Amino acid sequence: MTIAVGDKLPSLTIKERTPDGPAEVSTDDLFQGRRVVLFAVPGAFTPTCSLNHLPGYLENRDAILAKGVDDIMVLSVNDHHVMGAWATHTGGAGKLRFLADWDAAFTKAIGMDADLSAGTLGIRSKRYSMLVEDGVVKTLNVEESPGQATVSAAAAMIGQL
After folding, report:
1. What domains sit in the chain, N to C, each tagged with a CATH number?
2. End-to-end C-alpha distance for the chain, whole angstroms
3. SS3 of 35, please?
4. Is 118 labeled as catalytic in the residue annotation?
5. Do residues 11 and 135 touch, judged by C-beta distance below 8 A?
6. Average pLDDT score over the chain
7. What is the average pLDDT across 27-56?
8. Helices (H), 8-146
9. Set 3, 9, 37, 49: catalytic member
């Protein structure tokens, strides 16, 4: 079942690289009692993700936070080492939270998994963005093609806040 507007996000644990090393973070701690923009990409360091999707959120970070958002998070089915390196490489470290859904447990639980084996990527996340308030999905924007970042882009999200 694919998550929908009005649904509560599942309680799971994902990874995040911190200055002290890898950390397990519960989705309850990430989302409950908070207003969060979450966007997901098929893979760190991939062309559309690195050249289009992520830069829009970095460039519009202050405008998004000014709309009453507590945090902006990017999630990918990659390990925490890759997500940490991507954060550093893109200048996003300390600006956005880079979440590693290393085994795709969160992605599968919300029905956003995609088999990209034909492109040698394996199981990954669909490209999407959502506004989450107190753990509940308020808006959901899913791209039809993993190579596009329009409906899930930062500019689209700003229009929904």
Report:
1. 13-160 (3.40.30.10)
2. 26
3. strand
4. no
5. no
6. 90
7. 87
8. 27-31, 47-48, 54-59, 61-65, 80-90, 105-109
9. 49
